[in-house]
Specification:
two-stranded antiparallel sheet, mainly alpha, single chain
């Protein structure tokens, strides 16, 4: 995995039990282990949307079984993940805070499924004592749109203009660009002689109604 539960310990993307607790003799998987399984599954889904299957396999081959870089990883994958020049990378650290566009994507989907559970009587939302239920869509929207800024760039005027379909060379945008952060899209398009960008999937902003 590129990220793990450590990316969900800050206020913005906090997930309970993201910090491993001492074992008390239980043979069941820990909450952190279960969370890491969810992270891995959602992360793989996003990376498929970015790279396609063959490039994803090539990227994953650069990590050992502990999730650390192998000795002498391919430079193009190291740069994609940990950054180079003005591209921060799929993950980076500011102080002790671990940040990743993947984490925002994971949190969006994890929050959407975690707030309710499936039972024999249908979907259930737990009600805690002295607590007030709050629809997670507002939080999800905020997190998703920040992910989009890191993934596609913060282009708020005009929708994407597809110059070629998904088999084409690239996707062009119209509109004014807000901010100067290099997005994943910007980095890949700048280096499409290094990466096969035909698999890159366009994602857009949403509002609180999911539109």
């Amino acid at each position: 995995m590129i990220i793990n539960a450590q990316y969900f310990q800050t206020k913005e993307l906090y997930i309970p039990n993201s910090v491993a607790q001492p074992s008390i003799g239980s043979v069941l998987p820990s909450a952190t282990a279960q969370l890491n399984e969810e992270i891995e599954s959602i992360e793989q889904s996003l990376l498929l949307d970015i790279l396609g299957y063959e490039q994803l396999q090539e990227l994953m081959a650069q990590f050992d079984e502990n999730g650390d870089w192998i000795e002498d990883p391919e430079l193009k994958w190291f740069n994609l993940v940990d950054g180079v020049d003005d591209w921060k990378g799929l993950r980076y650290t500011i102080g002790t805070k671990k940040i990743s566009l993947i984490a925002y994507y994971v949190f969006f989907y994890y929050l959407g499924t975690d707030f309710q559970t499936y039972s024999t009587t249908g979907m259930q939302v737990p009600r805690a004592e002295n607590s007030l239920y709050n629809n997670p869509s507002v939080k999800q929207t905020t997190v998703w749109n920040k992910f989009i800024r890191m993934y596609m760039g913060d282009k708020r005027y005009g929708l994407p203009v597809i110059e070629n379909n998904w088999n084409g060379n690239f996707i062009n945008f119209s509109g004014k660009v807000i901010g100067n952060e290099v997005s994943l899209y910007d980095y890949l398009m700048k280096n499409r002689d290094v990466y096969d960008t035909t698999y890159f999937t366009v994602k857009t902003h949403i509002n609180y109604m999911g539109l």
